[in-house]
Amino acid sequence: MNNTIVSYLSQFEGHQKFLAVASEFLGFDVTALVGFVIFFTACFILVNVAAAIGGLGTYAERKISADIQMRQGPNRVGPYGLLQFLADGVKMILKEDVVPAQADKFLFNIAPLLALSGVFATLAVLPLSSGFILTDLNIGIFYLLGVGSVVGVAIFVGGYASNSKWSLLGGMRGASQIISYEVPVTMSIISIVLLSGGMSLVTVTESQGGLPHQWFILHNPFTFIGFFVMFIGTLAEANRAPFDLPEAESELVSGYHTEYTGMKFAFFALAEYAEVFVLCGIVSALYLGGYKVPMDLGNGVFFVENLGLPAVIGKNIGQLLQLGAFFTKTFLLYYVVIWIRWTLPRMRVDDLMTLCWKYLTPISLFNLIGCAIWVYFFENQSMWSVIFKAGAAGAGHH
Amino acid sequence: MFENILFFISSFLVLGGATMVVLSKNLMHACIFLLFTLFGVAGLYLTLGADFLAAAQLVVYAGGVVILMLFGIMLTGGTENKENRFGIEKIPGMGSVKTYIVAGVSILFIATVVLKIIANYMRHYQQTDLPEYMTTVERIGHSLLTDHILAFEISSILLLGALIGAAMIARPRKS
């Protein structure tokens, strides 16, 4: 069985004792039932946390844009306007649900669901920490690419079903952009898979260290370029500025969700912000060391051996530190994404395709081959150890 | 227990989606139902323990093929004008008596051949447990680059040909 939150919890004595007592009390083996309940609870919590992060993302977007433009931003609802997104949610629910008369009703209703379910399905492999991961599939990244592409279908279908020219143009732009930018992103991911020797996100994270020079971004020159290619690609995949052509408000009103009102519009917005969070998490797991904590504090051995804490508490403190590391890196990237949106102007649609096919794709191919050569010649050492060894050998000759 | 539930959900998706693909009159709807069918097929692969194949199914079909089909249908206008100006449906009846007879005979022929082939396996088939959960990625990689290297290379040449052909079609013509 692969590594899941259930297998993490079942290593503790308390869990085993609880299983034994409950099995005796109920008269049958409750392992499967308890596993299901744990999975259900964890999924419920994670989906709600992602939705809250998506909601707070809209708040962060307004606050940061206000900062950049020297305005106040939302400051009425709750402390510092923090509850603004809840007020927005209430407003969305109370709006009239308008379906255009000429719209394709079935597709119009199903598109927001597809978008949101595609994003939430990617949460299953998001490595929040070594223990609190829903499931550590050994094809984690591949699964993520496959499920994430449903969002592209949803954007296209939403744009088509609205039966409006603006929506249609937005949907077409969105779909073509997502398909195109999948190529450089996949190439960058493959080069990381090459270095770490596994497609599971935990394997990728574990083959990095806690300190910046052990991360894959500083592993060799090719991955350093690869990080930026991947980050630009994720910006385009999440339809964020400067690539937010599908919803370019100066040309297309609001792009593929022009005709959507109320909660259906909220679903699209939530899917976008949650997708940004997921993609930032993936970039941080692939290139920035993910949940790794410096000095190996994350596995909890330090707390058990040096501070004399019991194993349960020590391990869980380590897990909390890992969660903190992961969320810190992810939210920093999230901040950069919003920062870029309010700094750079929007690109033109042909420039977008030129950037993808003439620049990013060749660069990522070059990176892939470079990483393969690096693995072959330097036996997968990072450039720091190569430099140190060369320096030591040079000193030995003199 | 869990595998049975997964199997029932996936087979329901496959059968229901395929039925709706055939029955729906709107090509766009048929394409979306095809997406559900492909998800169901991925689920069926998962119940057989072929995780890599399931993910490849999602990446290739859900990500690429369905979007391309949607583009194709939309750009060729396959969804509009189901009736001509006399109010008669444009969709012709699929085939005549002749084609039905040919189809029936060929179905019988193919079914006989296929059943003859799998009869040997089915006669000695014993239900066993699923193999221990293990990674299929490495095994696929090994067999692709050792035993099936010829098929691998041929398919890569085929894909290269498709790529060059697409570039040839798409490039602006100098006349």
The structural domain count of chain A equals 1
Question: What is the H/E string of chain A?
Answer: HHHHHHHHHHHHHHHH
The biggest beta sheet of chain B is recorded as: none
Examine the coordinates and then state which fold CATH places here, giving the name of the CATH topology of the largest domain in chain B.
Four Helix Bundle (Hemerythrin (Met), subunit A)
Count of DSSP E strands of chain B?
0
| Terminal CA distance of chain B | 66 Å
Integer average pLDDT of chain A: 83
Outline type of chain B: extended
Q: Report low-confidence residues of chain B grouped into runs of 5 or more.
A: none
Can you give the mean pLDDT of chain B?
80
Order of helices and strands of chain B: HHHHHH
Task: Describe, in short, the structure shown.
The complex is a heterodimer of chains A (398) and B (175). Chain A is mostly helical and 398 residues long. Chain A is built from 16 helices and no strands.
Tell me what you see in this structure.
The complex is a heterodimer of chains A (398) and B (175). Helix content of chain A is 69%, strand content 0%. By secondary structure, chain A is mainly α. The longest helix of chain A has 38 residues. Chain A starts with a helix and ends with a helix. The model of chain A has no long low-confidence stretch (mean pLDDT 83). Chain B has 175 residues and is mainly alpha-helical. Chain B has three domains: 80 residues, NADH-ubiquinone/plastoquinone oxidoreductase chain 6, subunit NuoJ (Four Helix Bundle (Hemerythrin (Met), subunit A), Up-down Bundle), CATH 1.20.120.1200; 31 residues; 40 residues. Chain B has six helices and no strands. In chain B, helix 1 packs antiparallel against helix 2. The longest helix of chain B is centred in the middle third of the chain and has 27 residues. Chains A and B meet through helix 5, helix 6, helix 7 and helix 8 of A and helix 2 and helix 3 of B.
